[in-house]
Amino acid sequence: MGLWSRIKKAAKKVWRAVKAVVRIAIRLVATVVMLGINVFDLVFGFFNWPKKKLTLHVVILSKYDANKKAYVRLCSKAAVQPSIDTVKRVLKDTLNVELRPYGADYIEFFEAEVPPKALKPSCCDLDLLGQEFVSSGEFYAQHTAGWVGIPISFRFPITVFIVEDVQCRNGCSNGFASDYVVIDLVGLTSTGPDLSNGLIMHEIGHACSIIPHYDVRGNLMYKNADKRGPALIGVQRNVFRSSRHVTYW
Question: What does the angle CA 81 – CA 135 – CA 202 come to, to the nearest 5 degrees?
Fold first, then answer.
């Protein structure tokens, strides 16, 4: 590799990192501003009143099949719909929050080239946050609903990327630092007591700033999927309902 090529490659990495820092900073500011708007819920969210809304967008990625010479969808809409139904039910029954799609439908297919690391992201420790600074994070950012470098929707939608495989877990979120979560094909079918197909709902909880797990069987944020349920304690509801993703409009 020549000197000029190395310089361009290094400059590209620096620019990608700068954009990631700016995105995270904007989201931090948005989180603080929305806390001010949602201060009632931050204090009294356990009342589950008044009714609020959350906007969801699901992107099913595709993988290139050399034999077919085409991009093949990782799964069908039917494979994701039970998880969306669970999100609707939990939001309505546990938080008095209405789920709505970002566009005409909750689900869209992405049938083009995807960076290999975006198809198989790592959720080991802080790896997903680290990926904000490389090609996979840039890809997710470019296809996150409601953003074109800056927010264009003050409903702050959450985008769920259905990927091929997630290392260490079956899904994860960066909390306030991003507006997307990643879920793999195995994670779509995760189940617990009274919470079938519940991983997307669990990761939405993290995206709405419920960061720590809660070690009580039946809680939505329990660390083991086979012991999760739809329950949230008061402080969890306060945090969730005061998130920038949960709005009155």
Answer: 35
pLDDT of residue 8: 84
SS3 100: strand
Contacts of 89 (CB under 8 A, 6+ apart): 230
Distances in whole angstroms, Cα of residue 176 to Cα of each of 81, 112, 186: 25, 28, 25
CB atoms within 10 A of CB 188: 19
Residue 229 contacts residue 32 (beta carbons within 8 Å):
no
**Residue ranges per domain, the chain?**
3-247
Residue ranges with strand state E in 112-245:
158-163, 171-173, 180-184, 191-192, 195-196
Beta strands in 111-225 (DSSP E): 158-163, 171-173, 180-184, 191-192, 195-196
- C-alpha 237/C-alpha 126 separation (Å) is 25
Number of H-type helices and E-type strands within the chain: 8, 11
**Superfamily (CATH) of domain 3-247:** Collagenase (Catalytic Domain) (3.40.390.10)
Token code pair at residue 163: 């990927």
The whole-number pLDDT of residue 193 equals 84
pTM higher than the cut 0.90: yes
